[in-house]
Amino acid sequence: MTKLGKNLSWLGSVTSLLAVATCYGTLAAVTLLSLIGVSVDIDEDTLVKLITGLLVLALLGMVYSWRIHRHPGPLLLSLGAATLLLWVFYGSYSKPLELTGFALLVIASLWDFRAKKRACSDSCHGENT
Asked: Quick one: which of 32, 51, 48 has its CA closest to 40?
């Protein structure tokens, strides 16, 4: 695997986790700031667009990662999670569905990390890094 390929192989997992952190990290930061008396107005449309962009990057990264480890599970799970989240953002909002979508995205990311690790341990021994 080339150096660029090795770097890109983490794109799906990292951007999936970044999408979760963007959503709930922003919420946590606003909450903490309000506790100390700082009022912050967040444009929800902009936040949804940012998270949507991260979901698209995550899916592209998962496709790239799938090409490396050939295990379809993480890709399919992240596709389902992204579809659910897009429905929640642009269709009918539901907090339980949002939480489920983000939880599935985290599970897909962890599964993807394991699949890449397993693929590398099976095929990367003996390669110069």
From this structure: 32
When comparing pLDDT for 123 and 21, which is higher? 21
* Domain presence at residue 103: yes
Is the whole model's pTM more than 0.85, yes or no? no
Q: For 21-26, which contacts have Cβ atoms below 8 Å and span 24 or more sequence positions?
A: 22/47, 22/50, 22/51, 22/54, 23/47, 23/51, 23/102, 24/102
Q: Is residue 126 part of a domain?
A: no
129: in domain: no
Amino acid at 111: W
Domain that holds residue 73: 3-121
Asked if residue 19 is part of any domain, the answer here is yes
User: Given pLDDT bands bounded at 50, 70 and 90, which one contains residue 125?
Assistant: low
Residues 108 and 16 sit within 8 Å (Cβ to Cβ): yes
